[in-house]
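Protocol step 4 of 6: record predicted structures for both targets in the notebook before any analysis. Target 1:
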Amino acid sequence: MHRKQLVALIVAASLSLVGCGPKKQPTKTAKPNPPSDAMTNVDTRMSELQQRAAELDAVARQLPGRDLKSDRDLVVQAFDRSSAALVLLGGPSPGGAFRQQLRIIDTVRQEIKTLSPSIADDPTIDSGLRALYNALTSVRERLFPDDPRVRQMLDVVHERVVDLDAVRGPMHSLVVAQVFSAVATTIQMMAGELSGRSAAAEAPTAAPPAPSAASVAPATAAPPASPSPAAPSAPLLPPSIGVPVAPAAPATPLPPATR
C-alpha cells in the first residue's frame, strides 16, 4: 500500500470518528417558578397576611431585648415578619419603588446579623424602619387612598419614626419597639380591610323576590253584569181635557149660632 493511500485512510478514519462522537444536547431553558398559592388565591393570601401581622405584633411586644444580642435578634425577626407581610400586601405585581423598599429592608436585616457588638446599630435600624414606613405608604396610596383609619395609623408610624432621631441608647430601643408595634397594628388593619373587601366581592347577590300568585296569574275580567229588568212604570193618566168630572157635593150649611 502506497504511502499516500495510507495517509488517506488515516484521515478518513479520523473524520469518521469525529462524526460519530456524542452530539451536543440543546441547552434547556429553566422554566420560571410558578407563583405561590398565596399570590393566586385571595383567601390564602389574606390568611397568611393576618398570620404575619400577628407574629410581628408578638415580636414587637418582646422588644427591647434584655441585652444587645437578644435585642438585635428580635429586631431581625421583626424586620423578617414585616417584610413577609409587605410582600403579601404588595401582591403579585408590586411597583418598582415598593420592591426597592423591600430590598432595603432585607439589606438592613442582613447587616444587623453581622454587626460587631462594638458598632452602634441605631443608624442601620433607622434606615430599615424608614424603608418600612415608605413601603406602607405605597400600599396605602395604591389600596387605601380614601381610608381615614389607615391614614391615621400611618401618621402614628411616622411620628414614631421621627422620634428615632431624638433618642439614643436604651431609649432608642424603646422607640424601635413602638415603631414595630404601630406597624403591626397598621398591617392588621389593612389585612382586615382587604378581607372585608374579598368577602363582599364573593358574596352572592340577593335574588329578586318571587312574584306573588296574583301577579303571575293573568287578571280575568269579570263579565259585565246583565241589566236587571226595569220595574213596570205606573200608567200615565190621560190628560184631563175631555174627561167628565163628577160634580162636587153641596156644602152642608152651619146651624145658626145661639146667643
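Target 2:
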Amino acid sequence: MGPHDPANAEQRSRMASKAAKSKPSRELAGLKAQLQDLTKDVLAGEIETGRAAVANQLINTHLRAIEVERRVRETEELEERLETIERVLKGRPRAL
C-alpha cells in the first residue's frame, strides 16, 4: 500500500484538515493581536496614522494570502476525494 492508496485517503484527508486548521488559527490569532496593538498605539498617539495605515494594509494582505492558501488546500482535498471516488467507480461493474 503506497502513500496515495485509496484505502488511506480518509486518514490523509483528516490529517490534512487538522494541519490546515491549526496553522491558520495561530496566524489569525497573531494578526488579531497585531491589529489590537496597532489600534492601541494609534489611539495613544505612539504611532503616526500613515505608518499605521501601511501596517494595516500589510496585515490585510497577509489575511488574503491565508485565505488563498485555505482555498488551495480545500481544492486539493476535493480533487483527491474525487479521484478516489472515480477509481472506485471505475472498478465497479456497469449497470445494464
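Step 5 preliminary note on target 2. The chain has a mean pLDDT of 84. Residues 19-87 form one domain.
Proceed to step 6 after PI sign-off.
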